[in-house]
């Protein structure tokens, strides 16, 4: 079971990096093999939606983090083994009966696979690894190694030079007769590489391992959550449950609303992968899906304005909610693409409708603080804001949540401080 999400959410949370910037994937990726990198990417693309599996994966990684265990294989072995195995596929595609690899490359491929098989056996027999609760992948590896096909491989002396006849026999075994078992074994090693990679991130960054709770309980509790990509983050405590399943968030421009929304939604997303998050504590009810709307672009392809793109986004969320799914929904500055009157009315109506969906959680940020007067009548809506403190004419931001609704508006102060009006009037900025 996987968590429902979409490209907009993945883009909002910067799950994958772009040419000029890294993403969350890069932060967690300390893998040693190309295979592990592919596994990790799939995990980030398909977060889990199963309480037992989330906690199982989290517990495994937490154990490895506590053991401070390094990846026990040489990356060069995988380079040789993967090149050796991939050549077999190319040979089949071309329908060639002639070997694409040289004798030396075949020899390197065979010896690297023998080393990997022997080393993984040593690893899974380690007492500390055998005692990791829930590490069912170890049982899979053990079962594979018990196959009679691997008996001669495990009997080989380490670093012993193989005869031409032995290499030919192993080549037939690895690339033909038992190719499937070899690939299964490598897949388990790639998964181990991912676990150790993420464990290293947890250890070095002091991330916490969240506890997944039963689906449908609508509980989210975060202590000292922050965005993991910030150099000097300000953390916040935050919680939601069925009695308060909607947060109406206000604050002036630059007060940190979007950063806070990304911090919380990133933690929720990553927690569903079973990975550690940037917080001191976290527990959460497993969800069916997560949808964020933080940087919604105009859809020029269909001639849609920003407002219409917002309407379509709300429509999509509404359809998912009607299917009785338990969702985590974020809208940053809802209906910013229309006039204040329509935005006010639409924000109140949509937020009120969201509040009735008690098995889902919502965070709505808004500049329309007047909407709070009407929404305040609904018990399941909570109100928090990110304050601005004025130091003379200079706004200063705490980035720390406070309860209530703020009427802070400092847009014109910032415009004046930047000398924009003076530049337009006099042709230059007056310092």
From TrEMBL:
<dbReference type="InterPro" id="IPR045076">
    <property type="entry name" value="MutS"/>
</dbReference>
<keyword id="KW-0547">Nucleotide-binding</keyword>
<dbReference type="Pfam" id="PF00488">
    <property type="entry name" value="MutS_V"/>
</dbReference>
<dbReference type="InterPro" id="IPR000432">
    <property type="entry name" value="DNA_mismatch_repair_MutS_C"/>
</dbReference>
<protein>
    <submittedName>
        <fullName>MutS-like protein</fullName>
    </submittedName>
</protein>
<dbReference type="InterPro" id="IPR036187">
    <property type="entry name" value="DNA_mismatch_repair_MutS_sf"/>
</dbReference>
<keyword id="KW-0067">ATP-binding</keyword>
<keyword id="KW-0238">DNA-binding</keyword>
<dbReference type="GO" id="GO:0140664">
    <property type="term" value="F:ATP-dependent DNA damage sensor activity"/>
</dbReference>
<feature type="domain" description="DNA mismatch repair proteins mutS family">
    <location>
        <begin position="244"/>
        <end position="425"/>
    </location>
</feature>
<dbReference type="GO" id="GO:0030983">
    <property type="term" value="F:mismatched DNA binding"/>
</dbReference>
<dbReference type="InterPro" id="IPR027417">
    <property type="entry name" value="P-loop_NTPase"/>
</dbReference>
<dbReference type="GO" id="GO:0005524">
    <property type="term" value="F:ATP binding"/>
</dbReference>
<dbReference type="GO" id="GO:0006298">
    <property type="term" value="P:mismatch repair"/>
</dbReference>
């Amino acid at each position: 079971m996987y968590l429902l999400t979409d490209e907009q959410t993945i883009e909002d949370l910067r799950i994958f990096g772009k040419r000029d910037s890294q993403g969350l994937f890069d932060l967690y990726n300390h893998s040693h093999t190309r295979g592990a990198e592919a596994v990790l990417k799939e995990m980030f693309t398909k977060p889990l939606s199963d309480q037992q599996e989330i906690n199982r994966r989290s517990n495994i990684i937490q154990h490895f983090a506590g053991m401070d265990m390094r990846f026990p294989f040489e990356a060069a072995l995988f380079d040789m083994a993967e090149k050796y195995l991939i050549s077999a596929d190319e040979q089949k595609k071309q329908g060639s009966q002639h070997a694409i690899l040289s004798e030396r490359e075949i020899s390197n491929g065979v010896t690297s696979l023998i080393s990997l098989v022997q080393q993984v056996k040593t690893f899974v027999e380690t007492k500390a690894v055998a005692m990791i609760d829930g590490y069912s992948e170890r049982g899979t590896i053990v079962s594979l190694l018990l196959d009679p096909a691997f008996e001669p491989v495990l009997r080989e002396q380490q670093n012993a030079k193989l005869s031409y006849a032995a290499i030919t026999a192993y080549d037939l075994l690895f690339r033909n007769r038992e190719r499937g078992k070899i690939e299964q074994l490598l897949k388990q090693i790639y998964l181990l590489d991912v676990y150790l990679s993420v464990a290293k991130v947890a250890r070095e960054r002091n991330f916490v391992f969240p506890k997944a709770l039963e689906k449908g309980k609508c509980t989210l509790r975060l202590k000292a959550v922050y965005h993991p990509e910030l150099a000097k983050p300000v953390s916040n405590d935050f919680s939601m449950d069925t009695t308060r399943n909607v947060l109406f968030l206000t604050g002036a421009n630059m007060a940190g609303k979007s950063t806070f929304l990304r911090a919380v939604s990133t933690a929720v997303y990553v927690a569903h992968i079973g990975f550690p998050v940037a917080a001191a504590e976290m527990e959460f009810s497993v969800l069916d899906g997560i949808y964020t709307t933080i940087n919604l672009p105009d859809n020029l392809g269909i001639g849609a304005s920003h407002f219409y793109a917002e309407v379509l986004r709300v429509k999509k969320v509404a359809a998912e909610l009607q299917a009785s799914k338990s969702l985590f929904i974020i809208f940053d500055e809802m209906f910013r693409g229309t006039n204040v009157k329509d935005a006010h009315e639409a924000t109140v109506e949509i937020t009120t409708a969201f509040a009735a969906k008690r098995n889902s959680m919502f965070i709505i940020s808004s500049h329309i603080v007047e909407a709070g007067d009407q929404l305040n009548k609904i018990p399941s809506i909570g109100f928090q804001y990110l304050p601005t403190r004025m130091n003379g004419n200079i706004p200063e931001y705490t980035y720390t949540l406070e309860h209530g609704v703020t009427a802070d508006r400092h847009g014109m102060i910032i415009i004046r401080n930047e000398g924009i009006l003076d530049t337009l009037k006099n042709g230059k900025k007056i310092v």
